[in-house]
Structure to design on (448 residues):
């Protein structure tokens, strides 16, 4: 394509013009003075944590584009190692701006602007009030500095690292308000909770936990009791919801009784566990035999009898004749009897859409029929070689949501987690502490 000299001039002129406009806009934005609101009562200046964290995460996303290492929370801790010393402190007065304050203390205008711009996405600098504070720290080690802005609702630190300004909130322990509510469900859990002033984040968490095991439309009848214990962060303006955290939830009636407790393990991971230390939707299973001698894995294999390449949907364990077979978890007998190549076969149905199956048995335990309840570790039968089998062994399957999975991958398949040993003992202590807190709060509410 050819341009005539005339249009070439037009193109160059417009490009220059656009460039100038962009530069002007950028500069105008950068040096915009910070306004101080002198009457705090007329301005909605107290920020919710939600607002702050939303804005904070925006900044961090941008920062992470530049800086690949260091999580946002690391900024502060890392900087403390630089031995920063407080060198100056200033309380905002009428007409003060971050840029002005820093400039008066010898900062280059461009640096002062960059610092102010780093703070702005977290707390808009125009919302800074009289009596908010700014602290300036300097490190003798590498001559770098750190700025801390302290407002009524937040503390923000800004540092310069590898030429990039990074700002982040310094979180202070918030004042927590503990709330306990119990009520009888009269129609459905959701509506009853809303009527009883349960904050939505708490309600959603409780539903998420209980719905793993409880069928809400089938199992929750009018009269089911709900008990919820949670924190409500009160360091924010009245009427605005701060941060809520569910500590305890239970649903109980004649047919259901499920509790979940918030518990932090020693590796600092917080999670919800039921009264036995098992995570929502999880289950602690045992092995079907005392001694496990795996002779055939789950997966594709050449069938030992037919010689065909076939999928093996379970695990084979070699055993002596009449070795006891144990129920891997509490359940109900779902199938018991002869089942073609599987010979004498028994299948148990457990919670969470999990089933377990045992094949080639020599005999079943007496008194077991379809529908019998069995407890975990109860003997359900004895090994044999009925059906299509080359020797005495147990063929064992686990079925999750109607799919036969690798029994050795059970925990991964259902996202299973639970506490054991010392973790379980300390969980029980925490569980009793929470129950005790609730008992006290229940007494309080009866006396009022
Ligand atoms: Zn098998």
């Amino acid at each position: 394509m050819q341009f005539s000299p005339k249009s070439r001039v037009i193109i160059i002129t417009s490009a220059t013009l656009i460039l100038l406009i962009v530069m002007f806009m950028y500069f105008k934005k950068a040096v915009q003075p910070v306004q101080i609101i002198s009457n705090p009562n007329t301005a909605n200046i107290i920020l919710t944590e939600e607002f702050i964290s939303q804005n904070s995460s925006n900044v961090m996303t941008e920062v992470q584009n530049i800086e690949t290492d260091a999580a946002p929370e690391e900024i502060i801790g890392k900087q403390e190692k630089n031995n920063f010393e407080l060198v100056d402190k200033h309380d905002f007065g009428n007409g003060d701006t971050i840029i002005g304050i820093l400039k008066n203390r010898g900062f280059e205008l461009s640096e002062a602007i960059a610092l102010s711009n780093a703070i702005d996405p977290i707390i808009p600098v125009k919302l800074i009030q009289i009596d908010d504070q700014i602290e300036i720290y300097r490190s003798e080690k590498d001559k770098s500095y750190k700025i801390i802005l302290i407002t009524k609702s937040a503390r923000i630190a800004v540092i310069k690292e590898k030429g990039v300004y990074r700002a982040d909130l310094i979180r202070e322990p918030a004042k927590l308000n503990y709330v306990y509510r119990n009520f009888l469900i009269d129609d459905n859990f959701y509506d009853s909770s809303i009527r009883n002033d349960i904050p939505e984040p708490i309600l959603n968490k409780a539903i998420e936990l209980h719905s793993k095991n409880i069928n809400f439309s089938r199992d929750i009848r009018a009269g089911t009791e709900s008990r919820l214990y949670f924190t409500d962060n009160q360091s924010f303006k009245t009427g605005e919801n701060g941060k809520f955290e569910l500590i305890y939830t239970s649903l109980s009636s004649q047919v259901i009784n499920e509790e979940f407790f918030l518990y932090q393990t020693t590796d600092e991971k917080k999670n919800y566990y039921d009264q036995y230390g098992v995570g929502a939707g999880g289950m602690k299973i045992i092995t079907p035999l005392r001694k496990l001698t795996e002779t055939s894995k789950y997966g594709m294999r050449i069938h030992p009898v037919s010689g065909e390449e076939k999928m093996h949907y379970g695990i084979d364990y070699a055993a002596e004749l009449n070795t006891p077979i144990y129920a891997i978890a509490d359940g109900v007998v779902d199938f018991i009897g002869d089942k073609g190549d599987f010979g004498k076969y028994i299948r148990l149905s457990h919670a969470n859409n999990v089933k377990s199956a045992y094949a080639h048995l020599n005999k079943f335990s007496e008194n077991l029929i379809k529908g019998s309840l069995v407890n975990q570790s109860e003997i359900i039968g004895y090994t044999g070689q009925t059906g299509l089998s080359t020797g005495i062994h147990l063929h064992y399957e686990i079925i999750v949501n109607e799919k036969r999975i690798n029994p050795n991958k059970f925990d991964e398949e259902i996202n299973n987690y639970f506490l054991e040993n010392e973790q379980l003992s300390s969980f029980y202590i925490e569980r009793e502490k929470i129950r005790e807190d609730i008992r006290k709060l229940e007494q309080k509410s009866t006396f009022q």
